[in-house]
Amino acid sequence: MKNITFSTPTPEQLASGELGRKLRAFNYGVVGKYAETQYVRLDARDEAGRLLGGLRGYVALRWLTVEILFVEEDTRGSGLGSRLLVEAEQQAIALGAKNARLDTFEWQARPFYLKHGYEEYARIDDFVQGQYLVLMKKALTG
Question: Are 64 and 88 in contact, with CB atoms under 8 Å apart?
Fold first, then answer.
């Protein structure tokens, strides 16, 4: 393997999706064909249009991955976070998800997720400034 170069892909190369297609083709040979990544994106706004919270995630390989769940501090405790999480899980089930996963720092929302049926399956101590990162998962039921 001679004359290999490394470079940052161009926007056009990124948009082509070639790398992802190559990985999926390899994976299909092991686990069979599965749907491409589908996004779950929710915003919660008040009557004035103020963003009170939201959720960003995606479904891939029948797993919902929650990347972001945020609720404004003055709205916490109102049930909005629970409503966002439940709605995302329902959308994910409709997209074929069987499970959900996420990570959260110890100062964030671990108790919230435990209350919603998530279980801790791994922890990385001292991830940032002495704080741990917890990885959580949950089986989704329709």
Answer: yes
Domain CATH number, residue 82: 3.40.630.30
| Residue 13 counted as domain residue | no
Give the model confidence (pLDDT) of 75-96 as tens digits.
999 999 999 999 999 999 999 9
β-strands 63-71, 99-105: how paired?
A: parallel
pLDDT at 36: 86
Q: Is residue 103 part of a domain?
A: yes
Return d(Cα 51, Cα 71) in angstroms, integer: 9
Is residue 27 situated within a structural domain?
Answer: no
CB 123 within 8 A of CB 133: yes
